Each structure stands twice: as C-alpha cells, then as structure tokens.
C-alpha cells in the first residue's frame, strides 16, 4: 500500500479558504494545468500524510452545490459521478467555513448522498472565539455521519488531525445523512425499480441537469412514462434544497451557538466606507491609480537592471565565443529575444500581485456591487468589472472569468470588449515607446509624466471597451433574462501564501507561454534578416564600396551603409518593403511593419522583434540596449529619427486598439462556440486601430 | 406587514413568505432564499440598485428586478 498515494479531492463553496488549505497541504509541490479539451484550471499537488503515506490532492473549482450552473461546476459533478475517471477520489474533503456553516453544509449533504468517504473540514476555527461561536463537534459528527477536522488553513492548525483522518479514510461512514428521495416517493421508487443497479442520487443528478455522463444520459432516463417536465424538475430541486436546509437548520440550532454580544462586525464598518455612494467610487479610482503608478515606478529599477544585464551578456558572448554564424545567432537572435520577455517580468508580477490582493481581500465583490447599475447602462453587468480589471493582466483568463455572468448577452458583450483593456502584453510596447517619446519629468511634484501617460492609455482602453459595449448593446438584439446573484464574502487580510503562489504561477505561465513564441520568432527573424535571396545581398560590400559618393566615407560609416543595405535586401527587408506602402501613412517604416506583422502572433513580440532587427545591423557597442538602439534609428534618406512624437503616438494607439493576439481569438472561439465573434473582433478592432493611428499621425506630424 | 424584498428599507428585517419559482434561479434558493428564512437589507448600491442582502446569514447582492419576485413579511424595523 505504500506505493499508491491516496487520491483526495477538495470540494467547497467559493470563499471558504479551500485554496489556502490546498496551498497549506501541497506547498510548492503543485501543478496547474487545464482539463483536456476545456479551459478549466486543474490544480493537483502531492502531500505527505505520514512517514510512508502520500496523498495526491486535487483542488476542484469552487461550487455552491451539485446543481451545475457553469462549466467549472459541471466538472465537479462529472468527476464525482464517474468512478472510472483517473481523478476519481478515494476520499472527498469538503471545506466549509465556520461563519457560513449553514450554507456550506448544503453541498456537504449532497456529496454525502454520493456515498463516497467524506471528511468535513471546518475552516477559520481561529475566528470562533472572536465571533463568539461555539460548536458541538460530537453532535455534528453523529448527525452528519462523518469525521470533522477543525482547522485554520492560514495559521496551519488542525492540519495534522486532518491528515490522520485522510490516512484512515476507509473507516469513514459512506451512509447519506438524510433521505432526499422523501421529496417525491413515487417518482424515486419508479426510478429505483427501473435502474436497480444505479445509485439513486446519482440518477437524480443526471436527470435534473445537463451533465455529460456516458451511457446514462438524461434523454434515456427521461424517456419514461413517469418522467417530469423541466418545470416539475425545478420544483423538485427546490423541494430537495428546502429539505436539506431543514435538516441543517435543525442540526445547527442545537450544535452551533453564537454569542452575539461578542461578535465584532468589521464587515459592517468597512462596507459603509467602501460601498459609499461617493466615497466608494473615490476609493476605487484611487486604488486603480495607485496600481498603475506603482506598476510603472516600482518596476523600473529591476527592469533597467535586467535590460543592462542582457545587453552586457550579449556583448560578452559576441566577444568571447568564436566568431561566426552561431555567435551571431546567439548574440543577435536568441539573447535579444529572451531579454524581450524577461524584462517585463517585474511589471507583470506587480499587476498579478495587485489583482490577486483585490480578489483575496473580498474587495472585488464590492466593486461588482458598486458598478452594476452603471455597467448595465452599457449592456454590461457589474460582474463584467472583474474581467475588465483582470484583462489588464491578460485577456485569456479574463474571458474565462466571464463564465459567472448569468446573462448571455451581457456575457457576450463582455467577451467582445475585454481585449480593449490594456493587457500585460501591451506593457512592453507601451513602456518602450513612452520612454522614447515622453520626457521623464514630474509635474505637480509627484506625478511622473511617463506614469501618467501609461495611465491615460489604460483609461483609453477602458473607455473604448465601454463605448463599444454601448454600441453592441444597441446592435445585438437578443433577449435573455438576467440572473444576477453574487456573494459578498467577509473581508480578509490576504493570505501571503495564496497571493505569492498565484503571482508565481501566473507570471510563469505568461513568461513560458510568450517566451516560446518570442524566442522561436526571434530565431526565424534573425535568419530572415541575415540572409537574402538576390545577388544584391551577397555583393553588398562590393556594391556599396564601388559607389562614387561612398569613396570618401570613414570606415565606420561605410560599415553602417553596408549593414543597412544588406538588411534591406534580406528576406525580411523584401517582405517589409512590400508592406511599407500600407503602413507609411501611419508614420512607420518597414522595420516597424515587420514588428506589427509579427505582433499578430502576440503583441509582446514587438520589442523582441525590433531588438533582433536592429541588432543585426548594429556594430556599435554603445548602442547595446533596445531603447538606445531604437532612439538611434533614423530615416536613411532624411536622417530624421524614426520614433518621433507623431509616429510614437500613432504606434501607441495602434497597439491600444488592434486585436493582435491569437491565443485570445482561440479562447473567444472556445467560449462562444463559433468563429463568427473572434473574426469580428479581429477585423473590426484592427481596422479601427488603423484608422485612429492614421488620423493621429496625420494630425500630429 | 407584507411586501416584496425590493421595497425593504435599510436594516429592516423580514421573513421570506414565498417567491416566484419561475424567475428565481436555483442558485439563489441554494444560497438560502426560501420560505421561512430571514432576510435583511444591508445596503443599497449607489443609484438604488443592486441590493445587498443578508439572507439566513449569507451576504449576497441581487438586482431589484429579482428582489421584487420575493414576498416577505416585515418583522422588525
């Protein structure tokens, strides 16, 4: 028995500290991936229970009940109903929280009906004294037919007891704690008669909702003389819920005591301030402002350091490795490519840090509450605020986060406009362009002008999202009933382990996801920039040197001429030149054109691409950072800099509006189940971006 | 006094008498919205909507439209 680990599934309502417990049990020994075919996060980790026992812990998505409302909740049910699933647990740990025990127990009683060994965890036990709560554990254990672990996932108390219960899971009772079939005896007796080998509650779950469960399909079971209409099924579900609550209410009346005089209500006082009709908005805007100022200010130190380090690494390699093609490829292709990803780790990590702080503390739900009425005017829901804010990190998880918007129209509009919010992948482009065209000055003593510009770009993104939502709200003519329900959880001080692990996980995913594309793209670009199809490329030295006006040039200038002549006649130069007429009215040269085309894979590719293109032609040791190279770039004919205020602003606006991310398009296709919507995003957004960039350049130039 | 949940005053406590099963989603029932449970208006959002309620100890927010389908009996002002 030593070798096979016990399979444990963590199940629970949202906001019960389930993830804290998962992090407590598994620490850094966890992997986050996706379930095959669907974009639901799958978190597993290993945990040692005793000297020779291990557990594989699976953290299932948070759910309020076994009646599925979303893809995430469906997954919980499908797993718990399918004994053949490789993740099917030996023991289920239901995580509840002491203050919301009543509601949390509803899910517990449903899971008990599935006859899987089940442990009940009551979390935040350390809060009991403070809130004046006392529990009669023996009574609860007897009535719920289970073993209870009283824990505090944050203070790590009670974890050893929980591990003991998991090790001895075979001794747990698998008997249901109430008889749900009482709600309609005739109906359930009929079911039992026709399917004597199936577990009754499982049958009921398959009938009452659309879970995907092999041969036991809803249609087959429903095809009976005694089957029920959807309305009748909902009535039965209501009856079932009432029955479960009766059981729980009766039990808690004797087993849970609350001394109201001891309860201190922090929630009440904070809510008065944070959801105040004026103060609430001021605080929310202040928080956003703080986030964007700090993302720009605080991360500039590590970013400069990373930039310089990669530049010297590149120089070191080109000097110390034997000269040749391999040396060039590494120093001019791979290293600039990698540095183009690594440099943005500080900013992205800061963003993910702030977003997970907002979610962990319970503040995000208050923002949803504050914004719902306003958002509804634009055809959105208060819940659209969460995707729009997390869209500032990345549109992909943001679009997945729209799943809890109950109304399909509001959800579709949110999905369509989310890519306008400024995602982390735009930061590299914005940062470098802002540094080039906006002076590093302070106004009013504390506002950094560059930080302010960045914030304006973020606001512009939000503004565009809202405007297009308004237009879509007018155009899209389908009615669907709005079911807006959101839990307002207790305020919590964010738990450092949850926040830390989340930041590490998300940053890692971004860096490796983008990293793969960027590095391979920079290698391809380097090849295309270093070789050409025609004789012009091969004979560059001869052609330039033989021109009469070049005879008097100094050696360095001559080398420059040769390098840029070579680049223009390389594969990439030829492609770039052919698209130049299209982008010239926006103020870009063909090199930027290559950057833009490459950016349709992913926006963050831009900086790496520019770095690779510019470093191929450069021989000057001084110009070894990306920024310096871009600043030094001039029009070959006029000698004027490429990155002026006009072309810079035009480029910023193009990146603000264009739909340049293949992964986002793929996610939108998955979530909307059609190519129609992602294609609309691609063409409408990019067309609009072109138009705006054109107007901006023509006005400013 | 009998009324509907959208007409509750701030900090007014009531008991849920009935609700429209066709329009109230199962999720809300599961969160505690059912006959006999207590309901209290904690706060109203700016512009009067949505409503922040305490139902049977669960704190949640719903829109006025949905709250108007919940019939309640006020027990304490």
UniProtKB/TrEMBL annotation, chain A:
It is a multi-pass membrane protein. Keywords: Cell membrane, GTP-binding, Ion transport, Iron, Iron transport, Magnesium, Membrane, Metal-binding, Nucleotide-binding, Transmembrane, Transmembrane helix, Transport. The keyword Zinc-finger does not apply. CDD domains: FeoB. InterPro entries: Fe2_transport_prot-B, Fe2_transport_prot_B_C, FeoB_GTPase, G_FEOB_dom, Gate_dom, GTP-bd, P-loop_NTPase. GO terms for cellular component: plasma membrane. Its main location: membrane. GO terms for molecular function: ferrous iron transmembrane transporter activity; GTP binding; metal ion binding. Mg(2+) binds at residues 23, 26-27. GTP binds at residues 12-19, 37-41, 59-62, 123-126. The chain crosses the membrane at residues 278-296, 334-358, 378-400, 412-438, 450-472, 509-529, 642-668, 680-700. Residues 5-172 form the FeoB-type G domain. It is found in: Cell inner membrane; Cell membrane. Probable transporter of a GTP-driven Fe(2+) uptake system. Belongs to the TRAFAC class TrmE-Era-EngA-EngB-Septin-like GTPase superfamily. FeoB GTPase (TC 9.A.8) family. This is Ferrous iron transport protein B.
From TrEMBL, chain B:
It comes from Flavobacterium lacus. Coiled coil: none annotated. GO terms for molecular function: transition metal ion binding. SMART domains: FeoA (SM00899). Keywords: Iron. InterPro entries: Fe-transptr_FeoA-like (IPR007167), FeoA (IPR052713), FeoA_core_dom (IPR038157), Transcriptional_repressor_C (IPR008988). Residues 3-74 form the Ferrous iron transporter FeoA-like domain. It comes from the Bacteria. This is Ferrous iron transport protein A.
